[in-house]
Amino acid sequence: MAALHQFKLKSLHWVGSLMAVSYNCFDFLGFQEALKKMRDVDDKIIYALNALPTESFKGQINSGSTCKDLYAKLEQSHTTRHAAITNCITLSATQLKALREQHDAQPNDVETDQKFKAEQRKLRVLQAELNVEDIIKERSYKAFNERCRTFFRTELSHSQT
């Protein structure tokens, strides 16, 4: 159980202009707030893509470079969030296993039962966050490919065209 506590607080460091976000898997509301901050790149992708020049202003800004930078930020953001969520799922599953053992040893202990059920709910919500991530990722890459496909090609855009 000692290994469980060494991962309690984890810092994430963003590349470039993205901010560092800390999260604590045992503070679920705090973790959700950290995820919200980490999703900032995805939330603002439409604004970033709308800043790309149209054909008539193409020579003023290097759209390929802008798309490449945005793609790198998206990739980093998705990778980091996925790692954060799976880390918390692992920690929650470990905590749940320990609580299950306590619950099995003392089946009439109301406090252990409540903690066990709360941890089960938390684990389910964390697992659902992975599904949310898939939806966010799909939406972001769809918008990215619609706007950047003529300026920047990725393996992702090759598979979707």
From TrEMBL:
Superkingdom of source: Eukaryota
Cellular component per GO, a single term: mitochondrial intermembrane space
A Pfam family the protein falls into: MIX23
Family in the record: Belongs to the MIX23 family.
Protein name as annotated: Protein MIX23
Upper classification of the organism: Eukaryota, Metazoa, Ecdysozoa, Arthropoda, Hexapoda
